[in-house]
Amino acid sequence: MAHTFDELVAKQRAADEAHTRVRHLRDTYGPTPRSQWSEHQTVTWETAQRAWHDLARDVRVSVAEYARAEGRPRQEIEAELRRAAGHA
After folding, report:
1. What is the pTM of this model?
2. Angle at CA 71, nearest 5°, toward 10 and 58?
3. Which end of the chain is less congested by CB atoms within 10 angstroms, N or C?
């Protein structure tokens, strides 16, 4: 659980970096089907994809817990988090 808003921001930034890594791999390897990728490329893609999904899920859970603990709407926390994490 994220105990502070700064921890939420750090988690969001980690998830954003993981997503950037996935997009970079897609741009580098080309679009799926993975059947045209080497085994190494497939494993790298799947690992990066899984990491991104795990981090994004952790952000969602932490935001919900934080909002509950603060007695504030989750959407309000998410909006603040997007601004703090540098989302457009």
Report:
1. 0.88
2. 30
3. C
